[in-house]
Amino acid sequence: MSETTATPFETFTESDLRRLFDRQEYVAEDDIVIPVLLALRLGKPLLIEGDPGSGKTELGKVLAAGLETELVRLQCYEGLAAENTLYEWNYTKQLLSVQAGERGVTDDGSVFDEEYLLERPLLRALSGDRDRPAVLLIDEVDRADQEFEALLLEFLSDFQVTVPELGTVEASVPPIVLLTSNRTRGLSDALKRRCLYLHVEPPSFEKEREIVRRKAPELDGPTAAEICGVVQRLREEPLLKQPGIAETLDWSRALLALRSGTDDDSAATDDGDPDTALSPQLIDRTLSCLLKEVEDVSRIDDDLLETLARAASDARERAEAQ
Amino acid sequence: MTTNPESGGLDTVRDHVIGEIVRFADALRTEGAAVPPTASSTAARAVAELPDPDETAVRAALRTALVSQRSDLDAFERLFPAFWARLTGDGSDEPSAADSTAQPFAVPQSGEPDRDAGGGSPESPEPLERAASTQSSAAESSATADGDDESNSERDEGRVFRALSTRTGRSEPVAVDDVTLPEADVREPLERIGRALGRKRSRRFEDAPAGAALNVRRTLRRSFGTGGTVLEFERRSYDRTAVNAVVLVDVSRSVLDSIDRGFLLGVLQRMHADWRSVRIFFFDTSLREVTAQFDEPTSDRAIAALERAETEWGGGTRIGDAISTLRTDYPAAVDRETAVLVISDGLEVGKLDRLERGMTWLSTRAASVLWLNPLATDAEYEPTCRGLATASPFIDGLFGFSRSDDLEEIARQLTLRGVHGRIGHEYTVGAGVP
Question: Is B212 part of the contact surface with chain A (CB cutoff 8 Å)?
Answer without folding.
Answer: yes
